[in-house]
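My current task is to audit a protein record that another person submitted. Thanks in advance; the entry in question is below:
***
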Amino acid sequence: MGRHTWARDAEELFAASRRGVITVAHLEHLGVPQRTSYRRCRPGRPWQRLLPGVVLLRTGEPTRRQLIEGALLYCGDQAVITGLESCRLQGLRRSAVPGELLHLLLPAHLKTTSSGYVVVERTTRMPDPVRIDGLPLAPATRSVLDECRRLTELASVRALLAEAVQQLKIAPADLSTELENGSTRGSALPRAALQEVARGARSVAEAEAMALLRRTGLPDPVWNFTLRDDLGHYVATPDAWWDEVALAWEIDSYEFHFGQPGYAATLARNNRYAAAGVAVVQTVPSQLRIEPHTVVAQLVSAYRMAAARPRPPVRLAS
C-alpha cells in the first residue's frame, strides 16, 4: 500500500488487521502516520483506541473477540490467555459481564504492564498453551486457579471450582497439584474450597452445606453415596448421609415449585425415602445463606429423632 493511499484502501487495512484490530506500528508500516492513527481515534472520528498502540478500525462497542485480539496485540507473541476467558473458551458455561478484565500471562523478563481492560501477570511458570480457534490459552487447570487466586470471597471461589469440576471435567487432584506447584499468593481460599471438593461436594450448594455443617457439632456424614434398601433396591443418592442413624440430607439444586422440571423426580425420591423408613432433611440453597441457624437446628433435631428410633434396614451400596 503506497503512502497516502491508505484512506482509499479501507478494505485492505481491515484485511491486514485481526478482525478490525491492528497496532499503530503496523498501520505505520502500511503507510498511515502515527499522528494520523491517533487523530482518527478522537471522539467523532472513525476509529477507536483499545489499548496503548492498539486501535479498532471502527467505532461502536468492540466484540469480545476484538477485545481479546487487542489484548494479544498489546502483550505480544509470547502472551497466553488465562483466567475466566480461557476457561470460557475451553467450555465453561459462564458469560462475560460488562467490564470484565482479560488476564494474560507473560514471561517474567518482559516489561509490559497492565493497562485498560488487560491484567498482565509476569511469571516464571509460563504454561504450554492450548490453542483453540487460533487463541493461545493456558490449560484449564491453570486458568481456573489463576482466576481463583484473584478472587477475595470464598463463595466465588467455591462456585468457580465447582463449575470447573462439573463442566470442564477437571479432576480435583489435578487442581490440588497445580495449586501446590504455583504461587502461594492468593492460595488460601482455593485451598479451603478444594478441601470441600475433595470431601465430596459436587456443587456450590453442597460446598456451602459442608461449611454450615461444622456449626452443628454432628458427626461427619458421607457425601454422594448410593443408598439401597434391604432387598438391594435403589433408594437414592443423598447429598449427605449419616449411616449410623439412617438420616439423609438433600440440598436441592433449585428453589422448586410445583410444575418445575425435576419436581416429579424429587417427589418420587422422597417417596422412596419414606418407603424405606429413611429420615430426610430437605434444604433449598437460599436457606443455607439466608436461614443458616434454622438449617442447623433442623439438622440437629432430625439427627436426634433419627437416633431415637430403630434404624431401618438400609445400607450404602458397595
In short: The first helix runs from residue 10 to 15. The CA atoms of residues 14 and 105 lie 27 Å apart. The chain has 13 helices and 15 strands.
